[in-house]
Amino acid sequence: MSIEFTATARRLGIYSAVATAVLLVAYASTLVLGLAMLESPDQPIRDPMFSILEILIIAMMPAMVALMVAVHAWAPRPSKSLSLISVVFMGLLAGLTCSLHFVILTLSRQPIFAAQPWLPLFMSFNWPSVVYALDILGWDVFFAFSMLFAAPVFNGTRLATWVRVTMFASGALALAGLIGVVLGNMQVRNIGIVGYVGVFLVVCVLLATLFCRTLPGVSDANESVGWGRREA
Q: Where are its TM segments located (predicted)?
């Protein structure tokens, strides 16, 4: 039995969209402040800003997964296969990101690890490193696919169309960040950050608005009366 857009799904969508937007603003603000405190742009962000960023990323993941589950509930029945794929990719991002950043947060500063000469090749965000490559896989691939598969399910109203357009933009920019990996230039890769921070923040605000305006209902009714009439 497919998931429907119930009152619970509606509340889940509103709360998770708002939570994700708030955490994104907090993350972006902390990132800007951390970068402003550096003496050179080549230096990594230092504590306490670095640890705050790690905690914010981990906290953001459950909200993002819940948001895509709400999107799956909202999606009309003919489009639910696409929204389900989006949920799966967001789950992959959450699992990878939480594991990655929890390991960095808890282990990278332990004396037994910090003393190892190979540590920068595994647990640093200086390219190339294992951690950096996995982080790129999560955000430039899994996140991008989640957005690109979810975008087509939104149609029928002007607001839903804006959600679709911004989701496509967010996913495309995140995917474009892989160009930096091909070129070995992480400055080029920063284009992906615009997609999954800046544009995705707009997506969250639009989704919160859409869910607030949408009455709970089943997908079968949406197919018969048209998507646009779902909004209050």
A: 12-38, 50-75, 82-107, 127-150, 162-184, 190-212
